[in-house]
Amino acid sequence: MKTRLSRLALAGTVALSLLAAACSRTEGPKDAAADGPSTDKGPAAELRLGFFPNVTHASALIGLEKGLFAKELGNTKLVPTKFNDGPTEVSAFLGGSLDAGFIGSGPAINAFAKSNGEAVRLIAGGTSGGAQLVVSGDITKPEDLAGKTVVTPALGNTQDVSLKKWLVEKGLEDKVQVTNRENPQTFDAFKKGEVQAAWLPEPWSSRLVLDAGAKVLIDEKDLWKDGKFPTTVLLVRTQFLKDHPQTVQALLRGLLAANDFAKTDVAGAKTAVNTQLQSLTGKGLAAPVIDRAFTSIELNPDPLAGTFPQLSKDAVTAGVAPKETDLAGFVDLTALNAVLKAAGKPAADAAGLDKK
What we know:
Elements: H1 2-25, E1 46-51, H2 58-65, H3 68-73, E2 77-82, H4 86-94, E3 100-104, H5 105-114, E4 120-129, E5 131-135, E6 149-152, H6 158-169, E7 177-180, H7 183-192, E8 197-201, H8 204-212, E9 215-219, E10 230-237, H9 238-243, H10 245-264, H11 266-281, H12 287-295, E11 297-299, H13 308-317, H14 334-342
Parallel strand pairs: 1-2, 1-3, 6-7, 6-8
Antiparallel strand pairs: 3-10, 4-10, 4-11, 5-8, 5-9
Helix pairs in contact: 1-4, 2-10, 2-11, 4-5, 6-13, 7-8, 8-12, 10-11, 10-14
Protein name: NitT/TauT family transport system substrate-binding protein
Family: Belongs to the bacterial solute-binding protein SsuA/TauA family.
Subcellular location: Cell inner membrane; Periplasm
């Protein structure tokens, strides 16, 4: 454990310095488009992998804790880098300080849009589901939110877009104050009564319900066909995908291994996630919290590409984006489908978003 903590602490320190550089390099040279000529340079020397300390990033946490990514990567050094929100991870991608990362669907679209469709490609899914609008006991219907404060993790993140789009649909966009706080701060503020509602990913929605007396007003699953929507996906920097396709496939094999582990050993998966959360945040989850959180997520390597045009529209409706993002070329499932085929699993559908 001590070795892992040291490694992650070092990665976090490196990430901070790299992120500082990223802020000044966002407008710098852009990666070549994925449909350009291959520049395969063989396995990468290292892979800088981003992720969040959330249950919605369970595939990443399991893969790290059980050594599944490292096993598949072989001699490629894995550099895990923790982020607390999608916009910060987007800055790392655009600054070139991150090679691959688990990230929310909203920031994934934003990274593609900010780089004019050049910097990143969506190569796999991570998690479907796992987000809820939780409220104080006096709120029983959407209209009760009028005059209240609702919190999301970060401006423009996946839950921020979902909330603001939903408020517009309910005619509440000018009647509700939306603020952004880091999830632990939201938990404390809710317990103190400073905020009355929050649209949060797991495990934070479960923590507010079980540890702070909140109740569920909206489960985001209920807003999507068949209850499926991409909460977490896997992005790769376009140039890294072109230069090191073998490494990308190795990463994806690790992803499938993490998902398979979660299916065959649910208790072991929960323990792996909780151990990582303890290492990353200094505090694990109580058994009822992690049990509840796991019931609301589905680990799925399919990124549900067909939902992304709607997600792009939602960002405009929410007032987070000025216009819809042209998603042509955003998705590249070549590596994923090769790995799925080798594992005897069905292919994922790019929904036409792999074409320029």
